[in-house]
Amino acid sequence: MKSTIEDVAREAGVSITTVSRVINNNYPVKESTRKKVEKAIKKLNFIPNSLARGLIKKKTFTIGVIVPSITNLFFPEVVKGIERTIRQEEYTVFLCDTKGNARDEKHHVEKFKERQVDGIIIIDPTNENIKNGYFEEVTNEIPLVIVNGYHRGIRCNFVLTDEEMGTIEALNYLLGLGHRKIAFLRGGESYSYDLKEEIYKQVMNQNNIEMIEDNILKIPAGNSLETVDLAKDIVMDRFKKENVPTAIFCCNDWMAIGAINVAKQLGLNVPNDVSVIGFDNVIVSQISEPKLTTVDQNMFKLGESAAQLLLELINGKNEKDTLKKIMIETKLIKRDSCMGGNYE
To answer: Where are the alpha helices (DSSP H) in 282-336?
Structure first.
């Protein structure tokens, strides 16, 4: 039979109020009394009721996390960092997948608010819900942290990876290897892809490299299970045209795997005939053949930092009107899928 707080109080010879104070650590209790209560809790294997604990502290000890995809390995790794951090404070995560749909994204936020979660973390949200002011409204109602996504002039708390510098470093690496015919492979609507394309065009222009419209490759879905096949199809089409690229910059590692598969299908060697570079550094980049050169977004750290910031907001350690933007550095991981040569 499950032990109750009354059983603990009887065993320790104290009042129920004293047991509650020991459990919640919200009022001073004599050390000798605390030890008696803790001994009784251990003996009876008493597990405090989380709902009762929440009512006392006026918290639910839950947070909502929203991702655009659970099949893109980037997002589960970020969630792992979140979960590890909040678990130390005895919080539980509710996770929702929007599949990149703005309406579903909004629906999940509203449901989380109804459930009275203590805070929300949303990863790579849709441009629509950021730019129309929706998340700024939510920030005024409940602690909210946005991970990546459009942030220029937006009054919300953000934790961001420095995707701009990561993209510049990756493209400069390809240029340093002698590549000039560099294709750019991206997904559909996403601030992350838009930013990378903007940087790609800037870097090409700064290096006096003629922009070839055929070298900007766009697939409709960058986070779904079909990403690899979609990437294969569009890269295959590009390689059937003239002025074939000698290198492909891919906006995530799944796209890069699709590009590598096409090269193999066409009998091309990676990296001797074509270099491929990815972005994220998910586990697949380490087990592909060849191993993938990619930009590490420090995904676990991204999630950990977002969770730490959210906990600060929940616990009132940040002034309500003080908004933070935390930047996490990226790092180019050089493996086997890129090679230099004479590519004029």
So the answer is: 284-287, 299-314
